[in-house]
């Protein structure tokens, strides 16, 4: 099938499909006219990629895990190498979430302090956003 058909079947735009191919996640043959030709397994592969991206995995992580993926969800075997890779990524996500939580708490503290002091805004802000009103 051509890229437009794969895009229609999966709901993934052609630009993203070309990106997956460039990252080594998806393979296509080239016709004499230069058009990409995907086999029927490409649809399942794209669905697997989307699920793994949804889990917060990078394209590099997915390239490592994808050869072992089974089914659309996909299922991954519990071999030590794959588990180590997934645990590493989970640790990275936990670290990012902790950093975001600290940033959120700090911003909430600034908002609380600013609300307690009240007063005039400087520079004057427009009501729609945080853009200063021109003088």
3D structure, described in words:
With 135 residues, the protein is mostly helical. Helices cover 56% and strands 3% of the residues. It has a two-stranded antiparallel ribbon with strand order 1-2. Strand 1 and strand 2 (36-37) form a beta hairpin. The protein is elongated and about 70 Å long. The mean pLDDT is 88.
Provide a compact summary of the structure.
The protein is built from 5 helices and 2 strands; from the N terminus they run ααββααα. It is mostly helical. Strands 1-2 form a two-stranded antiparallel ribbon.
Which structural class matches the secondary elements?
Answer: mainly alpha
In sequence order, what are the helices and strands, one letter per element? HHEEHHH
The biggest beta sheet, please?
A: 2 strands, antiparallel
Separation, N- and C-terminal Cα atoms: 60 Å
Strand content: under 5%
Identify the strand order in the major beta sheet. Answer: 1-2
Approximate shape: elongated
Quaternary structure of the protein: single chain
Mean pLDDT score: 88
Poorly predicted runs of 5 or more residues: none
Q: Helical region count?
A: 5
**How large, in whole angstroms, is the Cα Rg?**
23 Å
Number of strands: 2
Q: What helical percentage do the residues reach?
A: 55-70%
């Amino acid at each position: 099938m051509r890229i437009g058909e794969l895009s229609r079947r999966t709901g993934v735009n052609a630009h993203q499909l070309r990106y997956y191919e460039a990252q080594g996640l998806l393979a296509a043959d080239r016709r004499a006219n230069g058009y990409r030709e995907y086999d029927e397994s490409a649809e399942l592969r794209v669905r697997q990629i989307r699920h793994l991206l949804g889990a917060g995995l990078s394209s590099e992580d997915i390239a490592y895990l994808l050869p072992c993926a089974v089914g659309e969800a996909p299922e991954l075997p519990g071999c030590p190498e794959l588990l180590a890779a997934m645990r590493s990524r989970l640790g990275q996500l936990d670290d990012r979430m902790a950093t975001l939580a600290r940033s959120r708490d700090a911003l909430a503290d600034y908002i609380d302090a600013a609300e307690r002091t009240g007063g005039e805004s400087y520079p004057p802000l427009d009501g729609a956003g945080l853009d200063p009103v021109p003088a």
